[in-house]
Amino acid sequence: MMVEKILVGPGDITVVDKPCLLEAIGLGSCIAICLYDERHGIGGMAHVMLGHCPENIREEINPFRYADKAIDEMIKKMREAGSKQYNLEAKIFGGAAMFSNSIFRIGEHNIKAVKEKLAEERIRVIAEDIGGKRGRNVWFNTEDGTVVVGTAFGTTKEY
């Protein structure tokens, strides 16, 4: 039986309570945050582009592009689906330094923001493939919590 595949694009959050394959394609400095509640079979993915949401964000800007707002919303949606926050575990992927001469170090800032927010929410990071200089594709199987990560040059690894 084929499970449904759902693309989680930049600034998107998807939470499901059934077996699905959540997919984030072309992660550079962006980060895919996968939260999983094994006990209740609930999984979620956020595809974040930046770390902290500015206080003065304009209304038309999607706040879920930011790690702090996206993690808050994903936790809320998972709780609404029946999850308990103390059951959640995280796997994080991405945050590459795509341009070696960049003064902005966006990937590095994103990693720091994601880890800080997850620690603040007391959600344990049990696997990560972060940093480096290569882009990634991420596939999160919500049936069993496994994540497969592929790099731009074809290698894959399961977490």
Report the β-strand fraction as a percent range. Answer: 35-45%
Q: Per CATH, which architecture?
A: 2-Layer Sandwich
Order of helices and strands: EEEEEHEHEEEE
Oligomer: single chain
Helix % is 10-25%
End-to-end distance, in Å?
Answer: 23 Å
Largest sheet: 5 strands, mixed
Low-confidence stretches: none
Radius of gyration, in angstroms, nearest whole number: 15 Å
- Please, how many domains? 1
User: Can you identify the CATH class?
Assistant: Alpha Beta
The overall pLDDT average reads: 91
CATH topology: 60s Ribosomal Protein L30, Chain: A
Counting helices, strands and paired strands, the structural category is alpha+beta
- Individual helix count: 2
- What is the strand tally? 10
* Overall outline: globular
Architecture overview:
A hairpin with a 5-residue loop joins strand 8 and strand 9. Helices cover 18% and strands 36% of the residues. The two termini are 23 Å apart. The mean pLDDT is 91. The chain has one domain (4-158): 60s Ribosomal Protein L30, Chain: A, CATH 3.30.1330. It has 2 helices and 10 strands; from the N terminus they run E-E-E-E-E-H-E-H-E-E-E-E. The longest helix is centred in the C-terminal third of the chain and has 15 residues, at 106-120. The protein is globular and about 45 Å long.
What labels describe this entry?
globular; 60s Ribosomal Protein L30, Chain: A; 2 helices; five-stranded mixed beta sheet; single chain; 159 residues; alpha+beta; 18% helix
